[in-house]
Amino acid sequence: MTAIPLPYGDDPDTKGFWDAAREKRLVVQRCKACGHCQFPPHPFCARCARDETEWVDASGRGQVWSFGIAHGPTLPGFQDLVPYPMIVVELDDHPSIRMVGSLVAAPDAPINSVPASAIRIGLPVDVTFTAVSDDITLPRWMPRASESLTP
Ligand SMILES: [Zn+2]
């Protein structure tokens, strides 16, 4: 199996996100000047254009805002996993923020572990973290424990 491509954890705009993920914390970027929270991170605030931002913890709770099913072709390392879902999560505590991610049945389960028939808009999800290298831990999403995976 080909290794999956990994993000660059030392990019100055995203380093804080990956550092927090390695500590199993989900963070978003907040502008120190106006308080605007944003994701993905930028070198400046998307609202007021100031360049002083900080990382703040997010609850890691959200709901499926949208989803799609990848059938391929895909990036190297994902060919053997199709079809698999890709979801967009709206964060409960930052509803203006939506994150693209993987939906998995268990913390270390493969990205094709949740059948498409079990996914719906509004499905409550919680973040989980999977270390894929010494430097990179990926935030991924699991259906909330109270949710059944059966369609
Ligand atoms: Zn701002």
TrEMBL record:
Residues 18-53 form the ChsH2 rubredoxin-like zinc ribbon domain. Residues 55-129 form the ChsH2 C-terminal OB-fold domain. Pfam families: OB_ChsH2_C, zf-ChsH2. Signal peptide: none annotated. Gene3D superfamilies: 6.10.30.10. This is OB-fold domain-containing protein.
